[in-house]
Amino acid sequence: MTVPQAFSRVLWRKSSHSSAEGQCVEVTRTSDGLAVRDSRNPDGPRLAIRPDVWEALRREIGGRCQR
């Protein structure tokens, strides 16, 4: 699979709380929101998310997770 040009030069980030086994998601900014991918499959599919949906997801998950 060829990585789309739009994602070939972006900086993907993952939480510092990610597991050592690499079981996490990575996030990057796009021109109209964010993209999320599985860190174990960096050339796999990406999920595009609008900024307002991302913030709602962060609030929902953040309220359930202990730091």
From TrEMBL:
Superkingdom of the source species: Bacteria
Positions of the DUF397 domain: 12-59
Listed name of the protein: DUF397 domain-containing protein
Organism (species): Actinomadura logoneensis
